[in-house]
């Protein structure tokens, strides 16, 4: 089933398990089921299948952009998270997470190129934070913010090659790797043309 959000210039499609997605009053809400995640353990077999979690994604237009949202997570178990998600290929994708990792809300990132890495950036006070995914040239950037105005640089990376950029997908993911489920809301959603003016100065 496709969905249209007024804040986004592209339709969203559901992938993975049922996320019970809903949209009302400017807020998108999804729920992960028990022990749902999107991860390929870095110490495992390179052919190991990725685990899966509910995703709501759309095909990105060409060019640089900034996709942002305030994420609020109903934390119940370790590694519950709300995520901005980027997908380039079946084994090439990335996550920017507000995650309970494992006892404190934390900004975490995962970049998967065959297998996933896993990086904790900084601890957050509370269950809500702005997250932003950007494309600038042939690369992507992750930022986080307490207020949606001043952004903290988290990560700069590449996925795929330049000809594949127009076929990248982006959107939202919810996960509960160790728990019985987790509800997440995304509001203040925005999609703007152009990348950040400077990756590291808070713009």
Automatic annotation (TrEMBL):
Entry coiled-coil feature ranges: none
InterPro entries: ConA-like_dom_sf (IPR013320), DUF1349 (IPR009784)
SUPFAM superfamilies listed in its UniProt record: Concanavalin A-like lectins/glucanases
Chain segments annotated as transmembrane: none
PANTHER family, per database record: REGULATION OF ENOLASE PROTEIN 1
Name under which the protein is recorded: DUF1349 domain-containing protein
Source organism (scientific name): Streptomyces halstedii
Upper lineage: Bacteria, Bacillati, Actinomycetota, Actinomycetes, Kitasatosporales
